[in-house]
Amino acid sequence: MESDSNNFIVFGKPVLTEQEIEAVSSTLRSGWIGTGPKTKEFESAFAKYQGAEQAIAVSSCTAALFVALKAYGIGPGDEVITTAMTFAATLNAIIQAGAKPVIVDVEAGHFTIDAKKAAAAVTSRTKAIIPVHFAGAPADIDALLALREKHGLKIIHDCAHAIETQWKGSRIGAIADASCYSFYSTKNITTIEGGAICSSDASFMERARLYSYQGMTKNAWKRFSASGYQHYDIVSPGFKLNFTDVQATVGLSQLATIDAKYARRSEVWNRYQEAFAGLPVTTPNEDSSEQLHARHLYTLLVDEKRAGLDRDSFLLEMHSRGIGCGVHYRSIPQLSYFAEQFGWTPKLFPNAYQVSETTLSIPLTPYLTDTEAGRIIDAVTEICRAATSRKRKTA
Ligand SMILES: *Cc1c(COP(=O)(O)O)cnc(C)c1O
């Protein structure tokens, strides 16, 4: 894929193949574009990929997290523990479910929840922990599962970055109690917007399915079947957070090439790791035998004391060289609503704050050409060298 005409490398640029565009056209012409047979097919394929008994496709990962909380009966009076380093979606899902969010810090120098701090935050009101497998690296799942056993909690995994992530040989979708995925346009596979819940807990999934579609017992496309017309019933309150067959058509095609996309991102990732090893910035950890990183975000930590320039200056330098970068994310206590509502300050979550102030994500999509990856490597290297020589001169 060629870069844009002005040569700017857009961060997280989605690219849909001609085959995907064709497939969407044929679904659009098929006479069934809402939730229907393609959605079912996508759900089965995604559950199989994760190693889960079932998947439910919904409108977003935010919706998936919200539905999972509702289907586990978590709401007013309950507490849900999550991490200070995540996207607002994780917090909003907890708040909209009516529960009280409790955030804990990440491990020093890492992006994932400190399980010891999560353990210390458990109270008699705690009903669930939502770990975020950040950038694609799994949190300490064994420690969280130990808390699940000890306190009878649910673990609802925020897998927005972690479609391909593995922990001890299984994908997160195969691990209790539920996992929530995003197919937003910048994520590892996309359906434009979309999400899914995976679980092997059948009664939970039945409640989740009802909740995601009006509490209705029969989906519309099943009502008009060969066996005649069936009247629907409403058996619980619900919402409308369903997926469409147009999204499923894109998703099926994206899922079919997920391994190839991962392999291409890994190639670029390995080039970055090799090229940046000697630079005064912190690169991501390598995989261990226990875990496989989904290669969603390639993050650098730019500490001014070490690198000679701060992260925001680094971002501007990258931008001026025609390379779009991202900051994932500003820590939750730095966002005014959460700070004001819950009294959280960055000082209370120093590790998340440190990561938030120094992190920068450089492009890592399967559509980067070798030339573009080379340009990104040169830019990072040049920025570091220039900052180092300025630092020497002023020292
Ligand atoms: C993107 C993201 C979400 C939300 O996904 P949507 O599908 O856009 O709702 C949730 N959590 C994290 C960590 C994310 O990065």
Mean pLDDT: 95
Helix content: 40-55%
Multimeric state of these chains? single chain
Would you tell me the structural class of the helices and strands? alpha/beta
Summarize the helix and strand pattern as letters.
HHEHEHEHEHEEEEEHHEEHHEEHHHHEH
SSE topology sketch:
Elements lengths: L17 H12 L7 H14 L3 E5 L2 H11 L7 E5 L4 H9 L3 E5 L10 H7 L4 E5 L10 H11 L2 E5 L7 E2 L2 E2 L6 E5 L12 E5 L2 H11 L7 H4 E2 L2 E2 L15 H12 L1 H19 L14 E2 L5 E4 L2 H4 L3 H10 L15 H7 L7 H9 E4 L7 H25 L1
Parallel strand pairs: 2-3, 2-4, 4-5, 5-8
Antiparallel strand pairs: 1-9, 6-7, 6-12, 8-9, 10-11, 13-14
Helix pairs in contact: 1-9, 2-9, 3-4, 3-7, 10-15
The structure holds pyridoxal-5'-phosphate.
Using brief descriptors, characterize the structure shown:
single chain; seven-stranded mixed β-sheet; 15 helices; binds pyridoxal-5'-phosphate
In short:
The chain is an alpha/beta fold and 395 residues long. It is built from 15 helices and 14 strands.
Architecture overview:
The protein is globular. The protein is built from 15 helices and 14 strands. The model has no long low-confidence stretch (mean pLDDT 95). With 395 residues, it is an alpha/beta fold. The structure holds pyridoxal-5'-phosphate. Residues 60-62, 86-87, 89-90, 132, 158, 160-161, 182, 184, 195 line the site of pyridoxal-5'-phosphate.
